[in-house]
Amino acid sequence: MTENHKRGVVYIATGDQFVEEAKISADSVKAVMPDVPITLFTDIEIDDEIFDNIIPISDPRHDFGDQVYHLDQTPYERTIFLDSDIYLDESIEDVFNVLDELDIAASQDTRNYSSTRIDFEDVESIPDCFSEYNSGVVAFRKNSTTRDFFEIWKEAYEEVVDRGQIHNQAAFRYALYHSDTRIATLPREYNCLFRNPDQVYGRVKVFHGRLIDIETPGAGMYTDVREAIEKINSRTDLRLYYRVGEEIKLVDPNIFERLQASISNRGIIETLRRGPRFVWRQIFKY
């Protein structure tokens, strides 16, 4: 294996629509990380130069379990897995580097969505303070620790499926909690679920949301990803965003609301002392 191929991006897409979406996602990866190879696991016969390697899946589940049962077969020593509905606006090659010291990298989900919707005592016994991680962007390195992690994830996922849930994040959380994996928590900017309200700081690198309209279990297509990028990355300061219908909006209080907040937090005297500088900053928002 060459030095270049020790690191790579992996997609697992079963079914024509998911493969089409993965192509769009892979295009965005190649645009910002042209030297990083991309592998696609799929049940579809495909010959597309965007993928450097295609590994066939002979027994697809066509649900979230395909990730659970095939991701550990990655050809790379260090892997960044991306859901097909991921769009990169900037390089995330530094995620490979965090695996120098840690075993897995993922971002916290906005809430323990899957874990709170299943009657599974082993999951319910995990302390609430242990977050559910989003499995749409997962980086890991091959070692004995992650091999054990994947085995626990598979066993937990089988239990989750038996209890009527096909989402894999409750089992993912269980495996992280009960394995020896050392987790790097990626910031929101590396997995921005722009359909949900949240806050970000600096440029968002990874946008997570449907790239094409797919009728499938999971999130639908609410907002065009390019419009989300334009709106959310129009600024780089700390900002709140939320979705209204198909449109992404930034929370942008006017100068009077900011003045009121300053008086509340700092008092009238300190606000007056900061007067000219305060007004200047609110006008130009830097």
Question: In DSSP terms, counting alpha (H) and pi (I) runs of 4 or more, how many helices?
Answer: 10
Give the termini separation.
47 Å
Highest CATH level, the class of the largest domain: Alpha Beta
Shape: globular
CATH H-level superfamily of the largest domain: Spore Coat Polysaccharide Biosynthesis Protein SpsA, Chain A
Across the major sheet, the strand order is 3-2-1-4-7-6-8
Low-confidence stretches: none
**Category from helices, strands and their pairing:** alpha/beta
**CATH topology-level fold name of the largest domain:** Spore Coat Polysaccharide Biosynthesis Protein SpsA, Chain A
Please write the string of helix (H) and strand (E) elements: EHEEHEEHEHEHHEEEHEEHHH
Query: How many domains make up the 3D coordinates?
Result: 2
Number of strands: 12
The CATH architecture assignment of the largest domain turns out to be Alpha-Beta Complex
Percentage of residues in strands: 15-25%
Q: How is the main sheet built? A: 7 strands, mixed
Helicity range: 25-40%
- Rounded mean pLDDT is 89
Instruction: Evaluate the radius of gyration.
Output: 21 Å
